[in-house]
């Protein structure tokens, strides 16, 4: 269970990027955060794993507050929260399997991590996750040789091997062609159910959000304006969210 | 490439271990061969700084050295600049002849490359000493030593710049039917000028440092007076000299960086 | 006919880039112009005021030609003999390798701590300032300073060369590290990895090729410095031999022999550097 209560954040004084954001998410839910550019979607997502230090509020993961964690505790929280990036953020010069195994680093001692020593089980799990995302034949390819969709699937495998409770995806399909985008969304949806995860994705594609998400959160100018099951998203709400008519996207 | 991932990772681990072991081995062997006691070396560092703190500390007296130090330092900087500029002037022509893009032909290119790396690799000590023999203890000796050293470096640097930055422009202008010299003066030189200047600035900084060595060997400039103070145990004056060098080198570096920021 | 051709040539000239850009460009052009002119003026002034100590330049050049002739066309091993010179050469090579290893290890550690995208601003700025000062002092002066404390010899030479190497490589490496995209670092941060784990799993693989080439550049510099320190600080090795034969016994045949040895070594070093770099780039 992820509970966010009264989250506040301003980058500059008197110009709040987030005001009073609260929502709950149950395990096994795929959530889409939508809203216009600059609304604060990235800010929310990055507060959830404290890449951005927010100003006030509470973020409770199964009842424990992430915001008050010290350095060591924060690392423990972070390994329970996977993240998938728009630009994949892989170490391009390393192989696919090495990048997947990076997800295990949070569980390692400094020495084992520095030298990249992984156990047999970890390697086997990495292989089985690569199979799951359909890349088992690419394990030894350098990441710089992959296509965007393939890179994103490596990124997803990397977050899964963390054994996360939550996966955060900041515009996971923004750099992908329609077919790869569909694949990635389907994959995320299936994984959410299979592992009973909380998956939160920032999306600009409303049709995708409507099609795959169970719950949709709408943000406008740093304020939460919608937080319901995805069936309830209507044209009216989209109009207030984006300040203009958005109809064709819905069909 | 079709090995198993487990095998690949194990292999990589071995490779890593082997590289670390080899480098460690070379280090241990080198320490032994050079009779370098690592522990004593480590202890010597704080000792040296303590010693510096006590002996290099400027005294009331050391201010009186300042005009002389300053004059020598200025002289050294001037020598560094002028040797670099003359070297750059020579190097740009040679580099144009020798680069793969603008070069005359393969034969000339090979010759130029050979000469450049030959010049570059003759030790500064050798230049200083044979020039000292012919030109005696004078600024001109220092100038020539720095010049000959810089020429080799700059030829190589300029050739690389031309090959990296000018090949496309060169093609584009050639396609318009311009002649060789038109292309050189209208396309190649304007294109590479900022990088050339950046290298010249770098070489000036470097030459100020190298001038110290040349000075110690040939009895000119700042190196010479440092050597005199050092050998006559006037450490307050030696310390003052080092301080002056630090200030000038850092000032030069800062100025160069500012210039680079504007031109690049 | 001519008229139309002129038009074609002139047309694209008029609607050029917008004004702001033009201004920027002209600033950099003015700067280049000003710097070049000042450099040339300084050079002109210096050369006309150069102290030649009353040496007749044409006589001196003739003498130089004779010396060069002896050096390069009639080299021989002189009174020291080949084995001794090879031994001295080996010790200079060892000195440069040793100090490059020290420089690379400490340089990398300091570079990580000094890079703007990795550490807190104060620590980084502190390290950068200290390194700039260390770099500003010529290697030879470092060696002389250390030789007061540890006595003339290899320890002083090693410390002196190492100091400058560390400062140089810290700057070079940290520039490579600062070129890394912030996102690569972030992607490991979110897995909960510790700082040094991120350094060796994300940063190291990304910069390894440029790490290798900077290190080998420094190795070449250190070899030159090892010779210089040997000559000017009496720290032994081939530099000392070179100093003795060219500055005390004036045996230019042997000087030439030593110079050829040195050039041979630098060619070998360069060759090895290219090979190793290729290996790391292709992996
Ligand atoms: N590092 C920063 N410093 C200052 N202001 C920032 C910073 N990052 C974001 N902001 C501001 O905070 C607000 C929210 O930004 P955020 O990146 O969260 O928007 P977003 O909803 O993710 O937009 P997009 O859809 O374009 O990615 C914006 O007004 C932005 O200008
Ligand atoms: Mg965003």
Automatic annotation (TrEMBL), chain A:
Recorded GO MF terms: ATP binding
Pfam family, one: ABC_tran
All residue ranges annotated as the ABC transporter domain in the record: 2-246
Superkingdom of the organism of origin: Bacteria
Keyword set, alphabetical order: ATP-binding, Cell membrane, Membrane, Nucleotide-binding, Phosphonate transport, Translocase, Transport
Xref: InterPro entries: AAA+_ATPase (IPR003593), ABC_transporter-like_ATP-bd (IPR003439), ABC_transporter-like_CS (IPR017871), ABC_transpr_PhnC (IPR012693), MetN_ABC_transporter-like (IPR050086), P-loop_NTPase (IPR027417)
Gene3D superfamilies: P-loop containing nucleotide triphosphate hydrolases (3.40.50.300)
Listed NCBIfam families: ABC_phnC
Name used for this protein in its record: Phosphonate ABC transporter ATP-binding protein
Automatic annotation (TrEMBL), chain B:
Subcellular location(s) per record: Cell membrane
Listed InterPro entries: MetI-like, MetI-like_sf
Annotated membrane topology: Multi-pass membrane protein
Transmembrane segments: 12-33, 39-56, 77-98, 118-135, 142-159, 179-204, 211-231, 237-255
Organism per entry: Companilactobacillus huachuanensis
Protein name: Phosphate/phosphonate ABC transporter permease
PROSITE patterns in UniProt: ABC_TM1
Family: Belongs to the binding-protein-dependent transport system permease family.
Annotated ranges, domain ABC transmembrane type-1: 73-256
UniProt entry keywords in alphabetical sequence: Cell membrane, Membrane, Transmembrane, Transmembrane helix, Transport
Automatic annotation (TrEMBL), chain C:
Entry keyword set: Cell membrane, Membrane, Transmembrane, Transmembrane helix, Transport
Family, per entry: Belongs to the binding-protein-dependent transport system permease family.
SUPFAM superfamilies: MetI-like
Transmembrane portions of the chain: 26-47, 93-113, 125-149, 195-217, 223-245, 257-276
Region (Disordered), start-end ranges: 1-20
Major localization listed first in the record, in broad terms: membrane
InterPro entries, per database record: MetI-like (IPR000515), MetI-like_sf (IPR035906)
Domain ABC transmembrane type-1 residue range list: 89-273
Record's subcellular location: Cell membrane
Membrane as UniProt keyword: yes
Domain of life (superkingdom): Bacteria
Annotated organism of origin: Companilactobacillus huachuanensis
Protein known as: PhnE/PtxC family ABC transporter permease
Keyword Nuclease: no
Bilayer topology: Multi-pass membrane protein
């Amino acid at each position: 269970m992820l509970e966010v209560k009264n989250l506040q954040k301003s980058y500059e004084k008197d110009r709040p990027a987030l005001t009073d954001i609260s929502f709950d998410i149950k395990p096994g839910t795929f959530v889409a955060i939508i809203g216009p550019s600059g609304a604060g979607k990235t800010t929310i997502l990055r507060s959830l794993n404290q890449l951005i230090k927010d100003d006030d509020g509470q973020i409770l993961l199964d009842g424990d507050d992430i915001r008050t964690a010290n350095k060591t505790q924060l690392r423990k929280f972070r390994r329970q929260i996977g993240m998938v990036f728009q630009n994949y953020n892989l170490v391009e010069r390393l192989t696919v399997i090495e990048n997947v195994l990076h997800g295990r680093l949070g569980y390692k001692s400094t020495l084992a991590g520095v030298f990249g020593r992984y156990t047999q089980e970890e390697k086997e799990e990495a292989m089985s996750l690569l199979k799951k995302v359909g890349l088992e034949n690419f394990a030894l390819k350098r990441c710089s040789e992959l296509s965007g969709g393939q890179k994103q699937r490596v990124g997803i495998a990397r977050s899964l091997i963390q054994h996360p409770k939550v996966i955060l995806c900041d515009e996971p399909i923004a750099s992908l062609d329609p077919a790869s985008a569909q694949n990635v969304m389907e994959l995320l949806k299936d994984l959410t159910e299979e592992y009973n995860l909380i998956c939160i994705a920032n999306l600009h594609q409303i049709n995708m959000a409507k099609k795959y998400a169970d719950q949709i959160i709408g943000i406008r100018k740093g304020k939460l304006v919608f937080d319901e099951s995805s069936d309830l998203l209507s044209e009216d709400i989209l109009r207030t969210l984006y300040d203009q008519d958005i109809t064709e996207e819905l069909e | 490439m079709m090995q198993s991932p487990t095998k690949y990772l194990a292999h990589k681990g071995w490779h890593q271990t082997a590289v670390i072991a080899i480098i460690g081995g070379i280090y241990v062997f080198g320490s032994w061969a050079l009779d370098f006691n690592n522990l004593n070396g480590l202890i010597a560092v704080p000792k040296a700084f303590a010693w510096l703190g006590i002996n290099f500390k400027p005294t009331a007296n050391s201010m009186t050295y300042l005009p002389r130090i300053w004059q020598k330092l200025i002289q050294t900087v001037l020598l560094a600049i002028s040797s670099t500029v003359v070297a750059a002037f020579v190097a740009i022509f040679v580099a144009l002849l020798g680069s793969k893009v603008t070069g005359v032909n393969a034969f000339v290119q090979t010759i130029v490359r050979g000469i450049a790396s030959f010049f570059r690799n003759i030790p500064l000590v050798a230049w200083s000493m044979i020039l000292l023999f012919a030109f005696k203890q004078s600024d001109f000796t220092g100038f020539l030593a720095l010049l000959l050293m810089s020429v080799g470096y700059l030829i190589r640097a300029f050739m690389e710049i031309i090959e990296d930055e000018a090949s496309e422009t060169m093609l584009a202008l050639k396609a318009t039917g311009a002649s060789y010299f038109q292309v050189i003066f209208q396309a190649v030189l304007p294109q590479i000028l900022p990088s050339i200047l950046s290298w010249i600035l770098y070489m000036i900084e470097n030459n100020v440092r190298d001038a110290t060595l040349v000075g110690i060997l040939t009895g000119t400039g700042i190196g010479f007076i440092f050597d005199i103070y050092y050998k006559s145990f006037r450490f307050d004056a030696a310390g003052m000299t080092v301080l002056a060098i630090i200030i000038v080198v850092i000032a030069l570096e800062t100025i160069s960086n500012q210039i680079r920021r504007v031109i690049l | 006919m001519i008229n139309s051709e002129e038009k074609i040539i002139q047309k694209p000239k008029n609607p050029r880039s917008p004004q702001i850009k033009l201004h920027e460009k002209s600033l950099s052009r003015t700067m280049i112009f000003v710097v070049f002119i000042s450099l040339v003026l300084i050079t002109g002034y210096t050369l006309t005021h150069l102290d030649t100590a009353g040496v007749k330049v044409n006589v001196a050049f003739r003498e130089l030609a004779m010396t060069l002739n002896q050096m390069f066309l009639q080299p021989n091993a002189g009174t020291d003999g080949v084995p001794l010179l090879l031994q001295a050469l080996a010790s200079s090579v060892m000195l440069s390798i040793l100090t490059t290893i020290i420089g690379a290890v400490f340089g990398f550690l300091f570079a990580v701590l000094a890079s703007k995208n990795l550490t807190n601003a104060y620590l980084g700025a502190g390290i950068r300032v200290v390194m700039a000062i260390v770099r500003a002092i010529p290697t030879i002066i470092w060696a002389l300073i250390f030789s007061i404390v540890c006595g003339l010899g290899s320890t002083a030479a090693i410390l002196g060369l190492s100091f400058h190497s560390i400062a140089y490589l810290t700057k070079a490496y940290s520039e490579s590290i600062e070129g890394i995209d912030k996102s690569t670092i972030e992607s490991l941060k979110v897995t909960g990895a510790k700082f040094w784990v991120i350094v060796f799993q994300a940063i190291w693989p990304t910069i390894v090729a440029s790490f290798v080439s900077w290190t080998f550049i420094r190795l070449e510099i250190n070899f030159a410095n090892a010779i210089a320190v040997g000559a000017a600080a009496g720290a032994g090795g081939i530099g000392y031999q070179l100093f003795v034969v060219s500055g005390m016994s004036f045996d230019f045949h042997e000087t030439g022999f030593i110079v050829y040895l040195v050039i041979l070594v630098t060619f070998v070093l360069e060759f090895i550097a290219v090979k190793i770099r290729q290996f790391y780039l292709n992996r």
